[in-house]
Amino acid sequence: MPIPPLLAPPHSTDELLRTLQQREEWFRAVFEGSAMGIAVVDMEGRFIDANAAFQRIIGRGADELRRIPFHSLNHPDDHAHEALQFRRLVSGELSSYQLEKRYLRPDGTELPVRLTTSVVRDGDGRPRFGVIMVDDLTHRTRAEEEREALEERLRHLALHDPLTGLPNRVLLAERMHAALDGGDEGEGCGTCAVLFLDLDRFKNVNDSLGHGVGDELLRQVALRLAACARPGDTVARFGGDEFIILLRGAGREQALQVAAQVREVLAAPLELGSYRTYTTATVGIAVADGTAISSDELLRNADMAMYYAKAGGGTRCAVFDRSMHRAVLERLGLETDLRAALSRGELRLFFQPIVSLENGAVVAAEALARWEHPVHGRVPPDRFITLAEDTGLIASLGAWVLNEAARQLAEWRATLAGAAALEVSVNLSPRQLKEPGLVEAVAATLGEHGLPAAALKLELTESSLVEDSAAAAGVLRALKKREVQVYLDDFGTGYSSLSTLHRLPLDALKIDRSFVAGMDGGTTGAHKGAEIVRTIVSLARSLGVRVVGEGVETSEQLAALRALGCDFAQGYLISPPLPPDEFAAAFLGAPAVP
Fold first, then answer.
1. Burial 125-161 (b: 16+ CB within 10 A, else e)
2. Which of 55, 283, 214 has its CA nearest to residue 553?
3. Could you tell me if 370 and 350 are in contact, meaning their C-beta atoms sit under 8 angstroms apart?
4. Is residue 7 predicted with pLDDT exceeding 60?
């Protein structure tokens, strides 16, 4: 039955009444015929109406429902949270909410349901009545089971390193926090030790034997390190050729014993296909002895100790002590220099092309900040950007990057034929996402340089969304209303639930470079890497967004991304980040204006 239209003005009052009657009949048919339980309640929580499916699921007839408030159906343990959400809905703080909870049937048995509640308001914004939709979760459908399996798979991917299978930084942070809290005893100041390992001369293996052999070395090292751990300890891959061993309840002597064991197990030769090689590690140790210390500080101390050992020639072990504090002073000096770097013109933007996998055309450029220090030379981006985030300088740095990227794009579009449709991609830090006035600042920057909003892509990481996904989603929706594109960067390295992703107004997912790298080599690991990418592409398609493969370094990776249905690619195989003039010369063609 088609919905009676109300788009054209009626020719008479009778015609309007007939149309309204038809629409009421249509909505009543949908209401009564729906397989989903639907009920209408007033703002006091009293039932006004409930369809047959709702009555069947709940096990109560319409007359009985009208005599009881709908909160009385709740399981006692679920009532407080449900009541809070309903109050937030009535107050206007929420427009709707969804949760999984339990109802109690008349016979006292528990009924698991997925509940969606929304509110209908009058022309003045006052709440009139609530609409409740209920799914019976007693019998999960195959689609729901597959969705939950996919979400669990993504959760595992988010907490484990895809190459070695070890816990990653996220899971390590959780376990460190638990260890420092005193574990199950809840003492608040737990005792533990951290070993920060950096493999010696790993770059030489990669450069001389190739990344495939280097990856196999990391996998074998991971297995050997895991064999050194005691029950309850954690061995994690921190990134690159760095590993962390968290020893719960351990002190200095136990940490030194494990470090000696690590050196012993790594001394045996590694069989890497047709190659035999050896590796060693430099180890930094930091101990939490029951005094108050954060997980970040403990990791920093272990990192400082490792670099202290490296400075002494490597392949050795060092335990953190306060004499290493001078490293912190050097960092403070770098912070002071960074505060003045913008005004002194030491920061520049480089641009890395993003290409279409359909036709190979350069469709966008990612703007990347670079710092040329007058004394120390080029400061690595991960060092000064992390420093900017830690010190609060990221807001001013981010504003400069946005403005400079927009200015450069506007200049290219005005002067170069090849840049007429070019877009620019700018990274947005978690701190920037929380800045008041972000949306207005972005709009003002675009207006100042005469750029359409669709020319700008803002990239943010999953970690930006975890702390307060509702607030982040609000900012993103405001950006989308202005037609600014939103990309989720490094996808798969954080944890975003599927329900959260469905609510975000995203334009694309950028597959993290670690997953792209994992497709190389034609091995079982490469097959698993391809399956991971295939899963992410499938998820993106279900969300209706595009996919960008990051960190493409080989033609094999590029071909695999194309075969798996990725839309775009970016990486050193195509081009490293380039200064503006080199980027324009390489990718944007001759000037449009002689």
1. eeeeebebbbbbeeeeeeeeeeeeeebeebeebbbbb
2. 214
3. yes
4. no
Question: 206 and 196 in contact (C-beta within 8 Å)?
Answer: no
Distance CA 572, CA 583 (A): 13
Q: Look at the alpha carbons of 9, 13, 15, 20 in this order and tell me if their dihedral is positive or negative.
A: positive
Which tokens hold the place of 523? 């091995």
CB 502 within 8 A of CB 470: no
Report phi then psi at 129, rounded to 5: -155, 160
Q: pLDDT (tens digit, 9 = 90+) per residue, 268-324?
A: 888 888 888 888 899 999 998 777 788 899 998 999 898 778 766 667 899 998 877
136 — pLDDT class (breaks 50, 70, 90): confident
Per-state percent for the chain, helix, strand, coil, to nearest 5: 50, 25, 30
pTM passes above 0.70: no
**Average model confidence (pLDDT) across the chain:** 84
Signed CA dihedral, 444, 449, 451, 454: sign only: negative
State the Cα–Cα distance between residues 223 and 246, nearest whole angstrom: 16
Phi/psi at 113 (5° precision):
-140, 160
> Distance between CA 495 and CA 154 in Å, rounded?
7
Burial class (CB in 10 A: 0-12, 13-18, 19+), 114: middle
The 10 Å Cβ neighbour count of residue 84 is 11
Cα separation of the two ends of the chain: 63
Containing 30, the helix (H) or strand (E) segment is: helix 13-33
Strand 37-42 to 127-136 pairing: antiparallel
The predicted pLDDT at position 26 comes to 66
Beta bridge partners of 49: 40
Residue 401 has a CB neighbour count (10 Å cut-off) of 22
H or E segment at 192? Answer: strand 191-199
Cα–Cα distances (Å) from 141 to 148, 232, 415, 540, in that order, read: 11, 37, 57, 22
160-193 pLDDT, tens digit per residue, is 998 999 999 988 988 898 888 764 444 445 789 9
Q: Which domains does the chain have, with CATH numbers?
A: 34-139 (3.30.450.20), 164-320 (3.30.70.270), 345-587 (3.20.20.450)
What stretch of H or E contains 203? helix 202-209
Quickly count: other Cβ atoms within 10 Å of residue 71's Cβ: 12
How far apart, in whole angstroms, are the C-alpha atoms of residue 495 and residue 491? 9
Q: Which residues pair with 578 in a beta bridge?
A: 351
